[in-house]
Amino acid sequence: MAAVTLTNVVKRFGGFEVVHGANIDIADGEFVVFVGPSGCGKSTLLRMIAGLEDISGGDIAIGGKVMNDIEPADRGIAMVFQSYALYPHMTVEQNLSFGLRMNGNPKADTDRRVKRAAEILRIDELMQRRPKQLSGGQRQRVAIGRAIVREPQVFLFDEPLSNLDAELRVQMRVEISRLHKELGVTMIYVTHDQTEAMTLADRIVVLKAGNVEQIGAPLDLYDDPANRFVAGFIGSPK
Ligand code: ADP
Ligand code: MG
């Protein structure tokens, strides 16, 4: 069980409040997309779920357990960022296994996980290459692979495709959808791109200036937007 529940979550930087009491319920295995314009608090919400940012108020629970004081490594989550941050001097295989090796994970299990991630992402052929010998899409696959080997219950993606060209973005979108179906885990995906949100999401959370404007399935938001902002952002004619 890895439902994710945000209850009255507040974030302040200094005296400045940037998330104003967010309530978001994400079901186990659901694909939820946070959308909204730049600066609306998408990354901050994701970083609080990951434990990379303290919360100023409220609770965040993962799998029914309140995570407020739990270290990032113990939350059962893995995060994929916009910048791939691969180790340039290591091969793909070493990039995938590095975190597990550092944690003292047994070699046989590490090898099994790396092999499985490579198969899922279809990068088996690239294992001995270094990042500079990879295309942008291949690098992004390796970055996702580093999340997969951790076998998290929840994947967090922060605009993972925004550095890719339009064609690759479409291709990787399909890959991420497939990954969600194959792994069956909870995914929370941040983007400012409406098309990405509409095509990937089971449900979309629309954010504006630190407030949740509406939560719903893509077509429900399209057919019945709560206000003009949601309508405009989703591209609904209403
Ligand atoms: P988004 O990811 O939707 O573009 P962010 O979550 O990055 O938005 O930022 C939300 C708000 O919080 C913005 O006003 C941003 O300037 C502010 N903010 C983010 N990180 C910090 C920080 N470390 N210190 C101060 N303000 C921050
Ligand atoms: Mg952001």
Write structural notes for this entry:
With 238 residues, the protein is of the alpha/beta class. The chain is built from 8 helices and 10 strands. It has a 6-stranded mixed β-sheet with strand order 6-7-8-3-9-10, sandwiched between helices. A 4-stranded antiparallel β-sheet has the order 2-1-4-5, covered by helices on one side. The radius of gyration is 18 Å and the shape is globular. The chain starts with a strand and ends with a helix. Magnesium ion (MG) is lined by residues 42-43.
Overview features:
238 residues; alpha/beta; six-stranded mixed beta sheet; four-stranded antiparallel beta sheet; 8 helices; 10 strands; 26% strand; binds adenosine-5'-diphosphate; binds magnesium ion
